[in-house]
Automatic annotation (TrEMBL):
Entry-linked InterPro entries: Web (IPR008545)
The organism of origin for this protein: Prunus yedoensis var. nudiflora
Recorded coiled-coil stretches: 10-108
This protein's name: WEB family protein
UniProt record similarity statement: Belongs to the WEB family.
A Gene Ontology BP annotation from the UniProt entry: chloroplast accumulation movement
GO CC, any one term: cytosol
Keyword line: Coiled coil
UniProt-listed Pfam families: WEMBL
Classification of source organism: Eukaryota, Viridiplantae, Streptophyta, Embryophyta, Tracheophyta
Keyword set includes Ion transport: no
Entry keyword Coiled coil: yes
Amino acid sequence: MLKLQKTQALESAIKATEAAKSQAKQLEEANSGNLAGTDGAWKQDLETARAQYVNVITELNAAKQELQKIRQDCDASLQAKVTAFKQAAEAEDAAKANAERVTELSKEISAVQESIGQVKLASLEAQQEQAKIFAEKDVLRQSYKATLEESTKKLLSLKKEFRSRTFWKS
């Protein structure tokens, strides 16, 4: 909005300058034939036109400076916008890279958790197998113990029988 007003002010100053130039030319042309009789009025009109011309030129220069300032502000704003877009793009790239890294880490964590689960399962199976082996050994030990006791009883019985036979024979 401000830019539009300043541009319009510049255009107005340019038009006023052109009008002052045109008026000065007209006065010169009109008074070039009447120099002898109206020398004082002509000079007065010329001075007025020159003063208007100087005022218009001053306004035009001020408008040009203002326009230059607007251009500089616009350039600075554009540069800030470009910088902001670059930063936004960099932030977006960083966010994508971080998201990819999160995905990779999540996969690694899942793989480690799966490995832990497999190790726990293998450990549980090994414990169950060990318990089964211990149970089988215990059964075998009990069986061997019973067999040993039975064999010991038989041996004692045979010894008694042998002693009694040898005792009777002698």
